[in-house]
Amino acid sequence: MTQEYQYLAGRLQEALATDERVNALDIKITIAHGRVHLTGQVPTQERQAAVQRIAQEMLPDFEIRNEISVLHLAAAEKPEALDG
Question: What is the pTM of this model?
Fold first, then answer.
């Protein structure tokens, strides 16, 4: 990644961490050959879509490849017993 791409990735990382639509610190951003690759996990599809929108807004001249997955958390079947 060139220095310019590193700078752009850093700006996007900061935006994703501070934007209330996402608030994600662990999105991995790689920029190469005019493409932005986004990987990581978010808790909802809304946040996944927000990451895409923010990246497109900030880097309109780049192809955005959003490979972020949505976490699916299953509820516990029964409460866990605690020994006390």
Answer: 0.80
Burial bucket for residue 52 (CB in 10 Å: 0-12, 13-18, 19+) = middle
User: Is the separation of the CB atoms in 48 and 42 below 8 Å?
Assistant: yes
From the number of C-beta atoms within 10 Å of its C-beta (0-12, 13-18, 19+), residue 47 rates as: buried
State the burial class of residue 36 (Cβ atoms within 10 Å of its Cβ: 0-12, 13-18, 19+): buried
Retrieve residue 54's tokens.
């923010």
- Looking at residue 73, its pLDDT comes to 73
Hey, is 7 helix, strand or coil?
A: helix
pLDDT in tens, 32-73: 999 999 999 999 999 999 999 999 999 999 999 999 999 877
Kindly state the tokens that stand for 76. 């516990």
